[in-house]
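re: the backbone from monday

yeah here it is again, tokenized this time
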């Protein structure tokens, strides 16, 4: 009932955590166009890894190196698990808003040994992002910043962990997506919990979608107990830091893996992962949307491939994700109508 009223209110914050199905932003782009009319960008990575994108912003950068919590565990990561580090003084990142709105509050999470960064906005205002601590992420919150912005490094090895970009005032509406290609459901354990708490303290989430499972199904040995425990721990953490939040699980589309150059077969752990997700949803009293089930009801993966809605591997096409988002909205609307 609370979710139903919040969706149509002036203030509604929706966030998706997930793997490659969400990292391309096609599913969420469809939701932004038809489900929630956004006026803010939300939380974004400092830069986008290859094959990933956030369509609410555009990036330009020079002399920054990107690190990913999925494959590199030698760093501390802010929420979302992507880190940008300057390779030399003078390195910069430019971020432009693709929304109609161009003025936002901006909270930046960063690390610096000394001089740090300078952030400049379109109004030629400069803000210093200097060292505030030794090992933990520092943060600075800036009011009424006009985009595009530039973050310039004043030293080598200074790090940007993420940015929270939102409209000033009460009427904040956004849908942000924190997806990482290849991520499993325990990826959040590699992220700094203090930065996560600070993001939620600044702007709490009303609706969170967790969309993991595809890469867990690729594991040669799937540990159901570990999967359920770490997933449930994440849910508990999100609830503790987002009062009244509604959480939904998305069970992945049909997970296939490559056999040879031409052929794919169903992952042997796909149904075990799917079963575990269903159990978590029941035990934690969460909403659940099953991508695989919709594919089966509408002809199965082979037909989706034939119709250009799915690739041969685990991923869908752009049109496939659009269709999936349409089904998601229809099912959610029908469910909320029962209250």
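seq for it, each position gets an aa:
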């Amino acid at each position: 009932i609370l979710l139903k009223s919040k969706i149509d209110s002036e203030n509604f914050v929706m966030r998706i955590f997930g793997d490659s199905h969400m990292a391309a932003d096609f599913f969420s782009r469809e939701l932004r166009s038809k489900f929630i009319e956004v006026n803010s960008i939300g939380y974004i990575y400092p830069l986008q890894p290859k094959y990933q994108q956030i369509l609410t912003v555009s990036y330009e950068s020079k002399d920054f190196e990107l690190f990913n919590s999925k494959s590199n565990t030698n760093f501390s990561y802010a929420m979302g698990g992507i880190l940008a580090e300057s390779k030399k003084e003078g390195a910069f990142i430019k971020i432009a808003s693709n929304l109609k709105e161009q003025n936002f509050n901006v909270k930046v999470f960063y690390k610096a040994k000394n001089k740090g960064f300078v952030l400049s906005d379109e109004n030629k205002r400069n803000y210093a992002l200097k060292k505030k601590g030794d090992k933990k992420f520092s943060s600075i919150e800036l009011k009424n910043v006009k985009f595009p912005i530039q973050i310039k490094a004043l030293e080598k090895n200074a790090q940007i962990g993420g940015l929270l970009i939102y409209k000033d005032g009460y009427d904040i509406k956004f849908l942000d997506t924190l997806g990482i290609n290849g991520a499993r459901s325990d990826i959040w354990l590699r992220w700094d919990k203090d930065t996560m708490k600070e993001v939620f303290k600044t702007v709490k989430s009303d609706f969170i979608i967790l969309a993991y499972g595809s890469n867990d199904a690729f594991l040669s040995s799937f540990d159901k107990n570990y999967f359920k425990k770490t997933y449930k721990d994440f849910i508990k953490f999100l609830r503790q830091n987002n009062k009244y939040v509604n959480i939904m699980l998305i069970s992945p589309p049909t997970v296939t893996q490559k056999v040879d150059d031409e052929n794919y077969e169903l992952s042997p752990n796909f149904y075990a992962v799917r079963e575990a997700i269903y159990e978590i949803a029941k035990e934690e009293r969460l909403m659940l949307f099953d991508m695989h089930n919709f594919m089966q009801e509408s002809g199965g993966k082979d037909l989706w491939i034939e119709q250009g809605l799915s690739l041969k591997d685990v991923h869908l096409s752009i049109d496939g994700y659009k269709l999936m988002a349409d089904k998601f909205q229809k099912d959610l609307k029908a469910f909320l109508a029962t209250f």
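The chain has a mean pLDDT of 95. DSSP finds nine helices and 18 strands in the chain.
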